[in-house]
Amino acid sequence: MHIIVTGFNHKTAPVELREQMTFTESELGPALHRLRHMKSILECVMISTCNRLELYVVSDQPHTGSYYSKSFLAKEFGIPMGDFVDHLYVKRDEQAIRQLFTVTCGLDSMVLGETQILGQVKNDFRVAHEEGVTGTFLNQLFKQAVTLGKKVQSETEIGQNAVSVSYAAVQLGRKMFSTFTGKTVLLLGAGETGELTAKHLFEAGAKQVIVLNRTLEKAREVAHRFNGEARPLSRLVESIREADIVVSSTGAPTAVIDKDVVQSAVAKRIQPLYLIDIAVPRDIDPAIHDLDNVYLFDIDDLNGIVETNIYLREQESDKVGVMIEEQMLRFNEWLQTLGVVPVITALREKALDIHEETMLRIERKLPDLTEREKRILRKHTKSIVNQLLRDPLSRIKELSATSEREQALDMFVQIFALEEKLAKEKESQEESVRSERCRPSILQPALAGEAAIRS
């Protein structure tokens, strides 16, 4: 079995292509079934976001699996393979596993360490699992990836430092206000970054957003998103007087807020006033720095914080890299134990066959046994079987994770004379793989073995 990822992201494909090749959540389920029924593809999960599309598949033939993953994309979107194949990356086995771990931890995102991707991976895997197109390998892989992503978020600070101007403004504000709860935000202008900053402040607890704009209709449109109030620019002084935080981004050629306006607005004021100027050219007169109880930050201040925080995230990414390598080792250890699964299954089946034959002989020799007595006999004789198997199964599982696992498995098979059962099982698997209509029954020994381990 081979794990293969075929896909593209913001680094390998232009936005025009990413816009064409994406799935909505409602489209994902049916598309997964079409992918699953492509030749040589036994399991699949698709991660589809605005910045990436990745197909994770399990295939019995690596070259065939990757080819039909590309063919699937061409058919789904009606785009000739030659038009997008140069933007794809194809990774197999260890590289594919590392890719998923890297994506889930936010190291492959447009914004290093962003946390939303973990929820997207978790949701896309949930859809695939519910659609029944995953199996032993991808179930284990994605379970470990999600667990790793959560651990990274809780044990590192890679997602804690603001790396956008709007978040940096909020981070600065926290140094002046222990909480934004109950604060009033004045948004001057209706630019995208200014609106986003106001949104973050509102979500952090600000009680009211006042929007001033040259066009009152535009101010009303933005204010509506925050259940706020739109006002004309003529009410600037009054609005500053009411505000705790002013965010300005008008795009005007000269300063909109001068020192006299702010000095008038903050007269007899007790609470500090926090001014964020994210406009270029600047909206707010730098002379305001001289006023008491007024704190002014411009775009350079915010960019300085962003650059520092990007550096801090890059430092944290080294820790995440170590965690990824640890998870790689764990997954490889799990893969190694799969070799023991058919052997464990064969031994348990042989033991249960012997137990069943023994019970039938007892019932023939003791025909007067009541149903209750039969149940008691069956229960206690089966308990003997399970107790006898416990230690051998435990030891072979331990040995299967060592460098001498092949010799240990061969010896185990010979000691318990399991050759015939394993040969029959192998023949059954090969027959199932030849039938494209079947679910990937080549994985059934692993599934059965896991059940044996749990019991």
TrEMBL record:
SUPFAM superfamilies: Glutamyl tRNA-reductase catalytic, N-terminal domain, Glutamyl tRNA-reductase dimerization domain, NAD(P)-binding Rossmann-fold domains. GO terms for biological process: protoporphyrinogen IX biosynthetic process from glutamate. Transmembrane segments: none annotated. Substrate binds at T49, C50, N51, R52, S109, E114, T115, Q116, Q120. GO terms for molecular function: glutamyl-tRNA reductase activity; NADP binding. The active site is at C50 (nucleophile). Coiled coil: none annotated. During catalysis, the active site Cys acts as a nucleophile attacking the alpha-carbonyl group of tRNA-bound glutamate with the formation of a thioester intermediate between enzyme and glutamate, and the concomitant release of tRNA(Glu). The thioester intermediate is finally reduced by direct hydride transfer from NADPH, to form the product GSA. PANTHER family: GLUTAMYL-TRNA REDUCTASE. Homodimer. Catalyzes the NADPH-dependent reduction of glutamyl-tRNA(Glu) to glutamate 1-semialdehyde (GSA). This is Glutamyl-tRNA reductase. It comes from Marininema mesophilum. The gene is hemA.
